[in-house]
Automatic annotation (TrEMBL):
InterPro entries: ADC_synthase, Chorismate_C, IsoChor_synthase, MenF, MenF-like. Belongs to the isochorismate synthase family. Catalyzes the conversion of chorismate to isochorismate. One of its GO terms (molecular function) is magnesium ion binding. Mg(2+) binds at residues 282, 414. One of its GO terms (biological process) is menaquinone biosynthetic process. The gene is menF. It is an enzyme of class 5 (isomerase). The active site is at residues 188, 238. This is Isochorismate synthase MenF. Pathway: Quinol/quinone metabolism; 1,4-dihydroxy-2-naphthoate biosynthesis; 1,4-dihydroxy-2-naphthoate from chorismate: step 1/7; Quinol/quinone metabolism; menaquinone biosynthesis. The keyword Disulfide bond does not apply. Residues 167-418 form the Chorismate-utilising enzyme C-terminal domain. Its cofactor is Mg(2+).
Amino acid sequence: MYSISSALEHLHNRLADDLPHSPGFCFFDAPFPLNDSFDPLAWLASQPVYPQFYWQQRSGEDEAAALGALRHFASLPLAQQFLQQCPDDVRAWGLNAFNLQQGALFLPRLEWRREGGQAILRLYLLSEHSLHDDAVHAADFLQTLTAFKPLASAQQVCVEQRHVPDREGWETLMAQALRALDKAELDKVVLARATDYAFSNAVHAASLMAASRRLNHHCFHFLFAFDAQQAFLGSSPERLWRRRGTALRTEALAGTVASHDDDQQAQRLADWLMSDDKNQRENMLVVEDICQRLQRETGALEVLPPQVIRLRKVQHLRRCIWTDLQTPDDALCLQLLQPTAAVAGLPRREAWAFIQQHEPFEREWYAGSAGYLSRAQSEFCVALRSAKINGNTVRLYAGAGIVPGSDAEQEWQEIENKAAGLRSLL
């Protein structure tokens, strides 16, 4: 692992620079020649330091591993406020909860970052008293790092499984939703199910992430390890937003059909999805909602033609939406775009209230968002196809959009298909 060891040595040598005994913020970058033998996820999971955050953009072009925290942020606006004082490419990484007032983001001590064919290893220093003293702490931090260990198999022996809600509870929940839709209290509501799996041994979050990354293509992959026992991870097909300066891209991902290993059969299912009225209506509800939210804060909106996105277990309808912000404001993006109608419903406030009142579990990080922000750019995916790990227990989440005419049995099967992306790996 020549590249990581030489990069760490380079950073350690930079700490010998004459740093002031005064408050400050700075960082050192080490060049990082890419080679096929280095896996940032395996390296990150080998370290005894937390928090840990892994990210891979769905195109595979961008990837990062962030380790240790110099500063924690309990919400995205707090992270954005801090970053206003930093150079353009300093990033905060982490999660926004379904309740967008809550977050878990951090400025890392150490960050490996790859953009396209270029990679760096970056060490941050931050102190309200003495940069010189923080360099000493950083040197101690580097001494704690270990060589990477290969990731173990994600396969486990399941000893217990429990759905929340169970099948009967789902039918009750569906009936409540359909009554609200019939009374025109809602146009759409997204109902979710959590499934708890207990295993005979502790579940290794990074191994599950690696297995998902290997099989679930065209997805954002993210892992936030809070400590050695607790983590939240996912492989999500849906972008919440991407910002480059003031250029903003978002999308409506709604409408679902099963996928298939056979290409011809998968294409027949995709053709049905493209022509199905219920799924097209569901997707256009999301498009219209996003456009209404954005129109007062952005320039002209461009809605691209619909596409079918084929994943391993399901296929989705997607329409991309492009525009420009008046100012590069990620806190505004979060406020405008989360939760989307694809994970909550319409009208947003009423759908949110229905979910809070009727769903028998707290969504926490599920259906929130994961990613990073900086002054120059940001990107967050919707935290779908996700799992919460606590020791030997894994909670998987999946949801379905309910509109007039939805059928409880079909929607239960849809969430089964969505959950299978991670469940099959366990």
